Amino acid sequence: QGQLQESGPGLVKPSQTLSLTCTVSGASITTNSYWSWIRQAPGKGLEWIGYIDYSGNSYYSPSLKSRTSISRDTSKNQFTLQLSSVTPEDTAVYYCARDLFPKAFAIWGQGTQVTVSS
Asked: What rounded mean pLDDT belongs to the chain?
Protein backbone atom coordinates (compact mmCIF):
# COMPACT_ATOMS: atom_id res chain seq x y z
CA GLN A 1 0.00 0.00 0.00
CA GLY A 2 2.83 2.36 0.83
CA GLN A 3 3.26 5.34 3.08
CA LEU A 4 3.41 9.04 2.23
CA GLN A 5 5.18 11.85 4.07
CA GLU A 6 4.93 15.55 3.29
CA SER A 7 7.83 17.91 3.87
CA GLY A 8 8.55 21.56 3.26
CA PRO A 9 8.66 24.97 4.90
CA GLY A 10 5.90 25.79 7.36
CA LEU A 11 6.01 29.51 6.66
CA VAL A 12 5.94 31.21 3.27
CA LYS A 13 5.78 34.93 2.56
CA PRO A 14 3.06 36.42 0.37
CA SER A 15 3.86 36.46 -3.36
CA GLN A 16 6.45 33.69 -2.97
CA THR A 17 6.20 30.11 -4.20
CA LEU A 18 5.12 27.36 -1.85
CA SER A 19 7.03 24.13 -2.46
CA LEU A 20 6.20 20.82 -0.79
CA THR A 21 7.54 17.32 -1.36
CA CYS A 22 5.80 14.02 -0.77
CA THR A 23 8.16 11.11 -0.16
CA VAL A 24 6.65 7.70 -0.90
CA SER A 25 7.81 4.48 0.72
CA GLY A 26 6.63 0.95 0.16
CA ALA A 27 5.39 1.64 -3.36
CA SER A 28 6.76 3.11 -6.57
CA ILE A 29 5.26 6.32 -7.94
CA THR A 30 5.52 4.76 -11.41
CA THR A 31 3.02 2.07 -10.49
CA ASN A 32 -0.61 2.29 -11.61
CA SER A 33 -1.72 5.01 -9.18
CA TYR A 34 -2.68 8.66 -8.99
CA TRP A 35 -0.66 10.87 -6.63
CA SER A 36 -2.59 13.87 -5.38
CA TRP A 37 -2.22 17.05 -3.39
CA ILE A 38 -5.15 18.21 -1.25
CA ARG A 39 -5.44 21.03 1.26
CA GLN A 40 -7.72 22.15 4.04
CA ALA A 41 -7.83 25.78 5.08
CA PRO A 42 -8.93 26.74 8.60
CA GLY A 43 -12.66 26.27 8.98
CA LYS A 44 -13.10 25.00 5.42
CA GLY A 45 -13.50 21.67 3.69
CA LEU A 46 -10.99 19.65 1.73
CA GLU A 47 -9.86 21.11 -1.58
CA TRP A 48 -8.26 18.98 -4.28
CA ILE A 49 -5.28 20.77 -5.84
CA GLY A 50 -4.16 18.32 -8.49
CA TYR A 51 -2.44 15.04 -9.20
CA ILE A 52 0.34 13.45 -11.17
CA ASP A 53 -0.33 10.01 -12.58
CA TYR A 54 1.89 6.96 -12.94
CA SER A 55 2.99 8.13 -16.39
CA GLY A 56 4.05 11.56 -15.15
CA ASN A 57 1.05 13.47 -16.51
CA SER A 58 -0.31 16.23 -14.27
CA TYR A 59 -3.87 17.53 -13.87
CA TYR A 60 -4.95 20.50 -11.81
CA SER A 61 -8.01 22.03 -10.22
CA PRO A 62 -9.30 24.72 -12.60
CA SER A 63 -9.38 27.24 -9.77
CA LEU A 64 -5.66 26.76 -9.01
CA LYS A 65 -4.33 25.69 -12.39
CA SER A 66 -2.67 28.99 -13.26
CA ARG A 67 -0.54 28.87 -10.10
CA THR A 68 0.10 25.12 -9.69
CA SER A 69 2.74 22.71 -10.85
CA ILE A 70 3.11 19.08 -9.79
CA SER A 71 6.20 17.16 -10.80
CA ARG A 72 8.04 14.04 -9.76
CA ASP A 73 11.51 12.62 -9.17
CA THR A 74 11.36 8.92 -9.86
CA SER A 75 14.93 8.38 -8.62
CA LYS A 76 13.88 9.61 -5.18
CA ASN A 77 10.32 8.25 -5.38
CA GLN A 78 8.97 11.72 -4.60
CA PHE A 79 6.45 14.10 -6.10
CA THR A 80 6.40 17.84 -5.54
CA LEU A 81 3.83 20.62 -5.37
CA GLN A 82 4.66 24.18 -6.32
CA LEU A 83 2.07 26.90 -5.78
CA SER A 84 3.12 30.33 -6.93
CA SER A 85 2.08 33.84 -5.91
CA VAL A 86 0.71 32.70 -2.58
CA THR A 87 -1.54 34.84 -0.40
CA PRO A 88 -2.76 34.35 3.18
CA GLU A 89 -5.75 32.51 1.66
CA ASP A 90 -3.36 29.69 0.77
CA THR A 91 -2.75 29.03 4.46
CA ALA A 92 -3.82 25.43 5.05
CA VAL A 93 -2.82 21.93 6.01
CA TYR A 94 -1.48 20.32 2.85
CA TYR A 95 -1.79 16.58 2.28
CA CYS A 96 -0.46 14.20 -0.32
CA ALA A 97 -2.47 11.11 -1.13
CA ARG A 98 -2.60 8.06 -3.35
CA ASP A 99 -5.35 6.06 -5.03
CA LEU A 100 -5.91 3.69 -7.91
CA PHE A 101 -8.41 6.18 -9.35
CA PRO A 102 -8.03 9.88 -10.19
CA LYS A 103 -9.33 12.38 -7.60
CA ALA A 104 -9.79 9.58 -5.06
CA PHE A 105 -7.68 9.34 -1.91
CA ALA A 106 -7.31 5.94 -0.27
CA ILE A 107 -3.93 6.54 1.39
CA TRP A 108 -2.96 9.86 2.98
CA GLY A 109 0.12 11.46 4.39
CA GLN A 110 -0.14 12.99 7.85
CA GLY A 111 -0.34 16.51 6.47
CA THR A 112 1.83 19.56 6.92
CA GLN A 113 0.77 23.03 8.04
CA VAL A 114 1.74 25.89 5.73
CA THR A 115 1.15 29.47 6.83
CA VAL A 116 1.41 32.37 4.41
CA SER A 117 2.40 35.47 6.31
CA SER A 118 4.91 38.27 6.16
From this structure: 96
